[in-house]
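Try this one yourself first.
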């Protein structure tokens, strides 16, 4: 195995995906701002002109008055603009990303020791595969519609609640736009932007990346793959447990693929080779902050390379304070008592177990370690 090359490919993939996600998000938000500026002005004008009778009709969900029809149409346009803008940007940028990840997937396999049989699949095929494969149980287009629909409902609720409380148009619009003092961060528009970045953009790019990787694996003859989480403090409970009790291999085209959960899963698929499961090197960050947020004078001993075969094994080598901080008191005691991290979550269902569920699934170990605590 070309260890250093593999290290670079894994590390660069994580960095590139983050940077590309930021680029895609910024492209989306730039277009959404134009739509927001136009439609919020239109919305404020309509609300300012409503009579008390029309407000009463609105609270009864009665849109028969002309101004209320315009109000409903404006809110509906907000919803449709989100769907159109996010879908359009994701389609354009998603194809570009699929092309990059198709090449990277092949390079990843070759660096792992797979023979070079050549990649014949096209970018369009790789992108189509990602769009046709569900992500967390639903297609990317459905996740985009979810964000659009959720925003429409929140806008409608903000208006209704404002009128119930007797608020002015200005105060209702502050609910939507946010306050100047907080630079809009307390408004529905900024909160929507965050959910689009977290639940759509970054999840979708991870989905496209891993789907393109699998398509490359198919073409170069890789038969099995395994999942590899990021070794840092931002990795979820779901991904931390991967391979804790030994590497789980999946048939190419048949197994689960990241994202394993909503909100920016960073786990990747790697090809199974003769070297899989043996000592290999992987980057780690012993911190809950992205590397870019860690001051350079604090990075010593926090960033490095490990030969641990799993997150479970790597975390076991970290300071006790780190283990307690990341796991919490009860999970830490269970972990130190020999319970593997894969007992804390189900990656197939994308579910992290609460303490009651962990206890019910591991009664003997729980009783042995926790006693009457």
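Now uncover the answer:
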């Amino acid at each position: 195995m070309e260890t250093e090359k593999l290290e670079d490919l894994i590390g660069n993939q994580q960095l590139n995906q983050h940077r590309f996600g930021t680029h895609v998000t910024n492209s989306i938000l730039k277009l959404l701002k134009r739509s927001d500026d136009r439609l919020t002005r239109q919305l404020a004008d309509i609300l300012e002109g409503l009579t008390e009778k029309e407000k009463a009709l609105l609270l009864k969900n009665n849109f028969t008055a002309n101004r209320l029809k315009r109000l409903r149409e404006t809110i509906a346009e907000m919803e449709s603009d989100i769907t159109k803008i996010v879908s359009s940007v994701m389609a354009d940028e998603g194809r570009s990303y699929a092309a990059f990840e198709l090449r990277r997937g092949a390079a990843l396999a070759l660096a792992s020791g797979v023979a070079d049989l050549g990649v014949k699949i096209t970018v369009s095929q790789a992108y189509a595969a990602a769009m046709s494969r569900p992500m967390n149980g639903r297609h990317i287009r459905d996740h985009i519609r979810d964000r659009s629909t959720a925003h429409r409902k929140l806008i409608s609720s903000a208006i209704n609640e404002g009128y119930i409380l007797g608020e002015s148009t200005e105060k209702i619009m502050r609910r939507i736009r946010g306050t100047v003092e907080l630079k809009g961060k307390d408004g529905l528009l900024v909160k929507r932007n965050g959910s689009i970045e977290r639940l759509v953009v970054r999840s979708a790019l991870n989905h496209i990346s891993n789907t393109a990787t699998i398509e490359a694996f198919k073409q170069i003859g890789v038969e099995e793959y395994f999942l590899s989480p990021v070794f840092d403090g931002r990795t979820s409970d779901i991904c931390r447990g991967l391979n804790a009790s030994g590497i789980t291999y999946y048939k190419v085209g048949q197994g689960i693929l990241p994202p394993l959960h909503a909100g920016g899963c960073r786990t990747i698929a790697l090809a199974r080779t003769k070297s899989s499961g043996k000592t290999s090197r992987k980057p780690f960050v012993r911190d809950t902050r992205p590397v870019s947020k860690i001051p350079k004078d604090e990075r010593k001993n926090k960033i490095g390379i490990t030969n641990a075969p799993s997150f479970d094994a790597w975390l076991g080598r970290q300071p006790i304070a780190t283990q307690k901080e990341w796991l919490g008191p009860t999970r830490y005691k269970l972990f130190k008592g020999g319970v593997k991290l894969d007992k804390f979550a189900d990656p197939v269902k994308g579910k992290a177990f609460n303490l009651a569920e962990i206890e019910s699934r591991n009664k003997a170990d729980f009783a042995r370690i926790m006693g009457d605590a």
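Discussion: The longest strand covers residues 224-228. The radius of gyration is 24 Å.
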